[in-house]
Amino acid sequence: MKENDSGKLIAIVEDDPDVARIIEQVLADFGFRTLWCRSGGDLLRRLRNLAPALCIIDLGLPDMDGIEAMQRVRAQTACGIMILTGRAHVSDRVMGLELGADDYMLKPFEPRELVARVRSILRRRESVSDDPPSQTATFAGWRFNLGNNTLTGPAGDEHLLSTAEAELLKVFVRHPNRILQREKLMGTRDVSPSDRAIDVRISRLRRKLEPDAQSPSFIKTVYGAGYLFLAAVDWSDEPKTGDTPA
């Protein structure tokens, strides 16, 4: 199936020219535009005038740690983020996903796998953004606006969810009170039994939703089966500003 990727801009944050050149060539072969940045600071400056669909960030940058660069990108834009690094430590992977990366991939990489993962991130982001801007799910005093990824608590406090968090909560509110397997929650991404990415995302979402994340009220773990979103969900289309209710 042909992917509609033509023209999408991917920012590559990599200080090794040879690696950057390979990534640029691979992505160009599949219809992407690319922007090469040699450092985190270079990327942040360019984000003032450009809006890439995705940033591919190495952790070993010359001016700042890649985790810091990722956090600053996340604070500045809602684009997708992939970490592409030689660091294989589990702690780096968990921290990257905890702080908002959509995926974590190790060097050396297989070019077709890189493209597949880039496409997977973009598909998930598009899936989140396809919802009507005014569609809102409410449950137990919480309000989740699927159009802008905003989660509002019973006391009125707002949380802007990352793309990965919003994607996960969307699946939950659309399938409440049903046990969902890990593969369902990860969407189009292939999941191995040892993949902890979904558990990291569950943990991040629990910290926003649950008064006590260690004793969750909404997102229940069903050992050996998956996860259960225990809530009654109502749906509404909120009137736009200036609309007069019928």
From TrEMBL:
Boundaries of every Response regulatory domain copy: 9-122
Regions annotated as coiled coil: none
Gene Ontology CC annotation, any one: protein-DNA complex
Keywords: DNA-binding, Phosphoprotein, Transcription, Transcription regulation, Two-component regulatory system
GO BP annotations listed: regulation of DNA-templated transcription
Listed GO MF terms: phosphorelay response regulator activity; transcription cis-regulatory region binding
Modified positions (4-aspartylphosphate) in chain numbering: D58
Occurrences of domain OmpR/PhoB-type (ranges): 134-231
DNA-binding region as annotated in the record: 134-231
Transcription regulation as UniProt keyword: yes
Record-given protein name: DNA-binding response regulator
